Amino acid sequence: MAKLLKLLLSPPIERPMIPAKFVKQYVIGEYLNSPMAVVVSPLGKFWRVKVENDESGMFFSGGWPSFLAFHGISEGDILLMRYEMNMVFKFKAFDLHGSLKDFNEEDTRIKQSAQLN
């Protein structure tokens, strides 16, 4: 069964911490030291995101800033992430007013071409 994780994006949004209680309850065995996670967007796109562990906890890091930029997710937004197991997450994003952010293929194509130029 999938577990939910809510991330309130406040500084530093480039390296959000995965709460220790969540990690302890749901991230099992060999995945505790996994160097990568996969985040699946509402469009079905897969993002590989580096995971770091230190004495203060587990964090999303490398690849996370480009994931946020690509999806137009910024400080103050809320991510509701569903943990599918094996370091795979699906997400929904909400803006400052609590409205669900809409992702569509056209916006994705525009952002991809802008990043290439």
Write the layout of secondary structure elements.
Layout: E1 3-8, E2 17-18, H1 20-26, E3 36-40, E4 46-54, E5 57-60, H2 64-70, E6 78-85, E7 88-94, H3 105-116
Parallel strand pairs: 3-7
Antiparallel strand pairs: 1-6, 2-5, 3-4, 4-5, 6-7
Commentary on this structure:
The chain is of the alpha+beta class. The protein has a single domain (3-111), classed as Beta Barrel (At1g16640 B3 domain), CATH 2.40.330.10. 22% of the residues lie in helices and 35% in strands. Strands 1-6-7-3-4-5-2 form a seven-stranded mixed beta sheet. It starts with a strand and ends with a helix. 14% of the residues are buried. Mean pLDDT is 82; it is low at 110-117. One of its GO terms (cellular component) is nucleus. This is TF-B3 domain-containing protein. Keywords: DNA-binding, Nucleus, Transcription, Transcription regulation. Pfam families: B3.
